[in-house]
Amino acid sequence: MKWTKQRLNNLFFFFGIAAVVVMLLTFDVSFVELWQHLCKAGYWLIPIVGVWLIVYGLNALAWRCVIKGNTSPNEHVNFWRIYRLTITGYALNYATPVGGLGGEPYRIMELSKDIGNERATSSVILYAMMHFFAHFWLWFTSVFLYIILAALGDLPFTALTAMVLGFVVVFCLIAFYLFAKGYRNGVVIKIIKWIGKIPGLKKWSQRFLDRHSDSLHQIDQQIAALHQQDKRAFYHSLLLEYLSRIIQASEILFMLLLFGVDSGGGFTGIVLTYAHSILILAFTSLFANMIGFLPMQLGVQEGGFVISIAALGLTAALGIFVSIICRVREIIWIVIGLLLMKIDKQ
């Protein structure tokens, strides 16, 4: 079994390397233009990349809350291992079409060495749900942040804006309802049954349910148990995930400041610019996740940045710069994540 997992580890590693090569060869700008953008970023690239040490640290803490709430007191996974799997999992997600097809299976495979297959599976699924749940809370609260800034006269508010914000609110409320059902009853069996509705997969779905019925029910029970029995761990994890998004917005703040966009300067100007950065992150991630079937959302993320930044009255050139530097940052962390795959002290 160990040999099989090692082969799978190598498969994930080489797939990630191939994906990075493809991404470098399909960049939206020439290497000359890319170098110009990197020179423009200069030393600012260090905090832009470095802030993700904090973001991934918060993600790892959120996942640790889920793991601790989902395992017995005598089961322990050290923080460094969770941190490493967090970075590597996201690296594989960035490089994989339909984010999650690479990172989540890898996390399950590795975490099962510590707490067994069933608890590893439920912990990874629970954390993935929490990660997306926090996304919806970011989008939902960003609507009200935009309304506040518009009321202060800082941002425009038109009929089209009202329609878009209304759509986001309804979209998030529906998602909250679906997440609530998932947390109460579990989601794994429902997902397998849903896969069975895809043409050609009905027999596979039924066989899988028949063979693993007891394990799947146990995983769903563990998913439901976290919210019902350990609400402190649940809300602590959600808060950490939400906070990680707020911290993530600082990389956009750094790039806006680099271009001299500081909303008039001073403390108030920096706070307003940070608020704009949160809005840019929120609406870009919403756009990218709605069309998330491309590796690293190639082209989608760039378009999202340009549209979000233009909506705040800034130039399209700034949107292109932000998207390119964020893409470079992603590639750097993908490479770091792939290298961490080879560091295994288990």
Explain what you see.
- The protein has 346 residues and is an all-alpha fold.
- It is 80% helix and 0% strand.
- It has 14 helices and no strands.
- Helix 1 runs antiparallel to helix 14 (316-341).
- The protein is globular.
- The model is unreliable at 293-298 (pLDDT under 50).
Average pLDDT works out at 78
The arrangement of helices and strands along the chain is HHHHHHHHHHHHHH
Portion in strands: under 5%
SS elements, strand count: 0
Number of helices: 14
Assembly form of the protein: single chain
Helix-strand blueprint:
Elements: H1 2-25, H2 31-41, H3 45-69, H4 79-95, H5 103-115, H6 117-151, H7 159-185, H8 188-195, H9 202-211, H10 213-229, H11 231-258, H12 266-290, H13 300-311, H14 316-341
Give a quick precis of the structure.
The chain is an all-alpha fold and about 350 residues long. Helix content is about 80%, strand content about 0%. Helix 6 (about 115-150) runs antiparallel to helix 7, helix 11 (about 230-260) crosses helix 12 and helix 13 (about 300-310) packs across helix 14 (about 315-340).
